[in-house]
Amino acid sequence: MLIINLFIYYSIIFINLCNSFTIKIYPDNIFTWNIVNKQPSFLPSFGPIIINSKLGSLYVGAKGNLFRLWLFNINDTSSNNLFSHRKFEINLEEREECLKMGNSERECDFWIKQIFIKSNGDLLFCSSQSMKPQLGLVDGNSLLDKQELHTQIGICSQHEGLNTTAIYVEEGNPNGLPAIYSGIRTGLSLENQLIYRPPLMNFEGNREIYPALRTPIYDSNWLNEPQFVGSFSFGPYIYFFFREQLTAANCNNNKGSVISRIARLCKNDLGGKQVLKQVWTSFVKANLNCSLNGFSFNQIQSVTQIEENNQNNNNLFYSTFIAAENTPYQTSAICVFSLLEINKVFDNGPFLEQQSAESGCWATIPAEQISIEGRRPGTCQEDSRQLSDEDLHFAKQHLLMGEQIQSLGNTPIFHKGQTLLTKIIATTIITEKKRENNNKVLLFVYEKRENVLFKILHKIKEGNAYLLAKYELNEKINLMAILPGEYIYLTNEKRVEQYRIGQCSAYGKNCRNCVLDPFCSWSIPRGECFYLESTHSTSPGWLTDETSIFSCSELIKPTELNVFPGDSLHLKCFGDENKIKWIFNGEKVFESDKYILTKNGGLIFLNLTESLSGVWTCLENENKLVEYLIKVDGENCTKPKSLEQFHAVQREWCRKMDNYRNNLSKWQNLYEQTNEENIKSCPIKEDKLTQFEQLNNGNSNIL
User: Fold this and answer.
1) 14 in the Ramachandran plot: left (φ > 0), alpha (ψ -120 to 50) or beta?
2) Could you tell me which PROSITE patterns the record lists for this protein (predicted)?
3) Residue 543 is part of which domain span?
4) CATH of residue 604
């Protein structure tokens, strides 16, 4: 029983070490399939999710189903004005044939893969049924058909787990026709690697106006084993974010290693007349550099976009990256890229040019040496079919930029070891004064290994990022969406979850993170965090923004901890562990055998002594986060007067007993080894006994 109690005691310490700063949060609202269909064993596998804020609707795709939910309460299915549901029946004969072909049951089911919102509110969606990709059009309110499902290759993949992207664009395309642009891999063995635009049809959808455009087949200089993570439309261009394997970008790079890219092409591209016929003439790509002191985070995982609220009319791309998978410890980072800087590289930067077909090496060609005036590769033409063969051959040979696109500040805004940061969403916040370049961005980033959601505040002007919270989730998530200033929505295999962005009560007694959060404010009298109300900024007793951080430090009172010699103790400190430091009685704390500095910024004492009594303060950037007053009571330890004191004495006794047993075992092993030697060799035996006495280190009194 004693050993069991000790195991439980130290297990609690270990659990706290691993999860000390993860906050358990609960959804404000939940939508499950059981709400409308009483099949508790059925897993709908909720997936793609998209918001139409004008209609107040959240659209969610699932296995064989499409849902329209009310943005402000996804659980409310009481009215047709708030909720719609469409069930899709699968063709059983086609499904049976699909299974006979060796495909899995999941691959042969009906799945909603992509959802697009048209300007009139209708929904365009891409689905997979029995390994056949299909395109459908439904009314945005009723979800009734406006166009029957029809086969459409190249928009969404029937293969499970493939990284693809697609975007629906209504403006800027040839003749003003709507178009879908996709990054995808097709074919039985995924040999077709595409950035693709399907044929442009007339507005009635019954006649082809322009043929499809794509990247060429079997040319790895365009795309080489790409994994797409996002696509965006700005002005006359479409942008694709992806990672791919290197062919041989220059002689110094290792062929086959993975690198992150961004590609740009023109919406009005029609391909060439003979050369590059039905192939992009405006395709160019560049490397994305997310690195820290020369250490590269080379694999982009996800990307989201926000508009910078100032006079620059700039857009920022927030991206998650991981280091190469063969590194000893998985490391992740978040880097930010500016659209202005991206276009500057594409419009003015140098290109790479292959020196010779035999060498496989590429060299940088300065921008001023590009002699084709007005026809720089990557620029948009009124009619690309009028370009000369010489122009097109030159463009075909100059796809890759010779200059990398650097992240904002030339460094990640956030990085963390032993993490796998994947999906990311963001919302902008402007301070009440709305000063130029004083923007703040709130990020939610999914950490896949521990199934937690990081909440990070980025101050663009200052270049600083703050980890506000880590939220523990119930299920592994599939996708995320955000309604700016209001809610985040998560989909998983079982349900759709809705969370208020603030989650202010989860901060508990953490005043500093509460006031950093743009959606929260701190009540001085109550010592708690509340959702920010407009009246708080003018009412006494409230701390409402980051200018109040120093006031938070003044409000922090030491937490008094009365302990006994031999006790174990965990001091928690929530903050950015890269910026945290501990102070003991005014002196900085360094590594020691008396305590453990945890990776999360805390301190663990395994064997307290009276010398550790005093004030322990945790600081982040010199701001006080938490303070503890430890009192190690050695006087009353030998004569316990309470159950708590008795337990402390018991733990110390058990520690000494474990030490004695360990030393006794070592002595027994040494004694047995001695017997195997010459029994007359007394000095050896005496040495062994002396060694045992040293190991025992004066603990024989416990006998």
Assistant:
1) alpha
2) SEMA
3) 504-553
4) 2.60.40.10
